[in-house]
Amino acid sequence: MTVYFTASIAGKKHYLANYQKIIELLEKKGCQVISDHIIKSTEQEVRLETKEERLKFQKKLEVWIASSDFMVVETSFPSISVGYEISLAQHLNKPILILYSEGTPPTLLAHNMDEKVVCEKYSSETLQSLIADFINYVQGAADSRFTFFISSKIASHLEKISRKEKIPKSVYLRQLIEKDMKNH
């Protein structure tokens, strides 16, 4: 499977190790990762590009997104161009995993109702299972995705358990359901 990875080039100062870990985990899952445009570029190089070079790059970017099976985005550092890429992938009906490592989720994406857009907070302990779960979803190995609204009290409880157990909230809920299924 081909995955398009994107993140803020300016954010590399703070999050490069996170970007590299995400790419490494995707590659370990057998994915071909399109990421050089983020990992090998610098802010200075981008600033010095001519208008023609930027337009040529935009065409390549559109081809990469269109040819990918899904997109993974690290959004801990805000970026308008990353937002554009997410929008383009949504327009092309691509599954998108939006990851952030601290703070709150990206405001415009946190409550997106598109079932192909998954927004998750991650840590070094949860990143591998989040990526594995998303790849299973994309491959159709997961039976279905189920989205529902919860109260702020439930959300707070899930967040607390997720941090304490160092597992994604979805994994915790799935474990509860599987445990209940065994008892019935």
From TrEMBL:
Transmembrane segments: none
One biological process term in Gene Ontology: deoxyribonucleoside monophosphate catabolic process
Domain of life the protein comes from: Bacteria
Gene Ontology molecular function, alphabetical: 5-hydroxymethyl-dUMP N-hydrolase activity
Alphabetical list of Gene3D superfamilies matching this protein: 3.40.50.450
Protein name: 2'-deoxynucleoside 5'-phosphate N-hydrolase 1
Organism: Candidatus Gottesmanbacteria bacterium RBG_16_37_8
